[in-house]
Predict the 3D structure of the following.
Amino acid sequence: MAERSDRAPARWRRPLLRWLDGVEAGWAVPLLIACFVASWTLYLAIAYAGGGLHPDTLEAWTLGRNFAFGYHKHPPLMGWVAASWTFIFPISDVSLQLMAMVNAGLALFFVDCIARQFVTGHKRILVLLLLMLTPAYQFHAQRFNANAVLLATWPLATWCFLRAFETRSVFWAVAAGCAAALAMVGKYYSIFLVASFALAALAHPARRDYLTSASPWISVATGFAVLSPHIYWLATTGASTFDYALAHANGNALSSIDDVKNFLLGLIAAISVAAVIWVLISGTRLKQFPADFVAMSPGLRLLFYVAIGTIVLPVLTSLAMGTDLPSLWALQGLFLFVVLIVCGARYPIERFYTVNVTVIVAGVALVAVLVAAPILAAYRNVNGYEEARNLYAQAASELTRQWHELTGESLRAVSGDDSLAFATAFYSPDHPHYARPFEHQYDWGLPRKTTLDRGWAALCFKGQDYCGRWMEWVSSRAGTFVRREFTVQASLWGRPGLSRDVVVLMVPPRANGDAPPESAAQEFGASKRSPD
């Protein structure tokens, strides 16, 4: 049937076959990725029309507002990307949703760079289509954070490593070192990828030729050179990002075994749809797998060692150190297995199947945009989110309005519940800075006197006891302050949704320690500020 369809395709298949003809001409893959980015950005815009951005994305943007070679919670790449993006594009929900999907699109592009080393024509398309049937490049990608930023950096680093191993040229050796360093400043979990490169090089039959050349040593030197500003930052600031990472190493042998089991099951579940599709495509030809594995090309064998390392090394580390190991930390490495399976198959794949998978991928995107997204938006408008993100913009707007009414000045600094503070920094037209230093993000300490003197506000959802108690502590020491409550309500396409009360604490700016304006003094608390 597949061969007959390729010889005499139905009329509706012909445009798709012409598109597949354009793979080697250079336009078919970019068109596919562009359509993927556009359709899933549209999905995010509709599904979260009244929902606001995820706190992780808001945190990435907040980090990037102050350029540094390191931050006190995460490595800096996600902040750099968000800051670079909003330097060019507007600060809005759709803008950052597009940023997240462009990151996913870049990831797919770099995966294609790897696949084209081993296959040509529509098999390259098939690799990307199967990856588009995993949750990594849409749902995982939309929450732009330290995990999502690895979607693009891991295939880029892998591609550069493969080329450096094969060519041993200075250019690719330098590129491999730079890309590996980029992955490391994305998230330290990338150490498992870098270590897998080393193990793959040692396990490969051509290891002697590679290791006795200058290529690996150029890569190592370049990688350390690119990482040196971040290493210097770690050395001079106490390496607090390591402290945050090591906070996940709090388990025991029993919990680690459970984490490893869930880690492997989660990855299997994530790739299961693509695996089922591949089984249907291969059919009885799957029995050739052992022979195909034995006959695997040297490049694919190197990739195989890398893939195994990215699974085995974190598992062994988790068992040895008792670390957490959620499967979402490894979703960016799924491409390794898809490339291996598709490119390692030595039998021809009829274009009939690639067209069918294209229709499935397009159908999923259409259903997501036209059906799932509006339903999700309507449901969340009434039922909300765990983090109440569909109230972020309203809370930020109302706090800003009341601050202007009270002080007549722009809001400069905001704190309180982290998610609300990040959201206020993003959604308020004043774009105040997140006032709590990230090294003390979870300490709930007293704001510095200089921060309070310049003007400062904090907000919490009513019922957040930990935040409410902190506000009472701050207000007892802030000297003069205003404490208010207001109600915000979600809205979607003119339909009202859930509502929630917000508590705000405002400390207006004081010039040279002067008393606050008389119009506001009646609302201020009377407690004295304790010395800092």
